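Hi P.,

Sorry for the delay on this. The queue was packed all week, but I finally got your sequence through. Input first:
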Amino acid sequence: MKIYLIGVGMGNPDTLTLAARKAIDACPVLIGAPRLLEPWREGHTCVPLIAADDIARRIGEEQEDVAVLLSGDTGFYSGAKKLWKLLEDCKVETIPGISSLSYFCARLRTSWQDAHIVSAHGRSHNAVGEIQRNAKTFALTGGATKAEDICKELTCRGLGEIRVSVGERLSYPDERIVTGTAAELAEETFADLSVLLAENPEPVGRPWNSPGLPDEVFQRGAVPMTKEEVRAISVCKLRLQPHHVVWDVGAGTGSVSLECALACPAGQVFAIEKNPEAVALLEENKARLGASNLTVVSGTAPEALEGLPAPDRVFLGGTSGNMDEMLNLIFEKNSAARVVCTAVTLETVGEAARLFAPLAEADMVQLSVTRTRKAGRYHLMDAQNPVWIFSGEGKGHDA
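Then the structure:
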């Protein structure tokens, strides 16, 4: 008994490879989604199944050769990945197909080797953050994230002029491909299983991989700012991942918020600040660096934190004496959140030492930075105030 895992492209039999057609013709039993089985009902026993476990179980009951029909290409967000593991003891031949990525880019007459690939199909995903950071982004859409939703979010974040192409019912006679700005396509309605290609002429990203943007990048005014060296170490202590939700409490000019926003293109960063002058600077610095995944929250913590989504990472740049209450709220939202706090006064150091000590991976670093400054033809050492950096995690599951 032989099992074929066959990529059938978008579903139209005309896009099948010759090897795939021969294998289908040779197999008495075909398994797959109803849409993919429809053209092959004559001459075959067609079994409509989608879940990998169900497919593997049914294969175990068969005596004849079986072909499993899988949409697109077997190596591109395909059910083949799970089936390979479930069928390790079987004789399996995999026949790749034409992916929606390859087909769509061919129809648009553009390459795809330079595209950043995102799957927002069947799950919530910050595709807009990916588009912000990449010159060309391809996205599978559907379910929680539809093509028009991405276009609406791009428009809301000031990226409405980005060129977007959306394809639906690819390869079928009623195929539809639409190209326009994100703002234009935000008014359209697309099929649930659509694909999207966004081209951003001015992608935003770090000028280098490590944190530590120069202080001169930020507009500051009279608002306090976490300086470059302290900021670099603090962001490293956060251990950010691209998908993380981050809170910056007491954000000031937003230097830490913006470092986090550039490090988390598929995530969200919330900068919480009570000072109106600082809020204005935050918005200005956000615009200067094009950080569309940064949301400025004007208000006082902990009250301003209540309605925010649960954080994976939190930076406490200012607590106004409410550190205990803030930590309780953070760990209520996410028991595994990682928190980093800076302190410059002995009173705050004492409070942080007490509150961070019970946390998992608790750590305290004291940082003293001395910069040089010119005095005529000489250079003098200019010592900065020492800063304590505390970090630790809640005791839930990994964030």
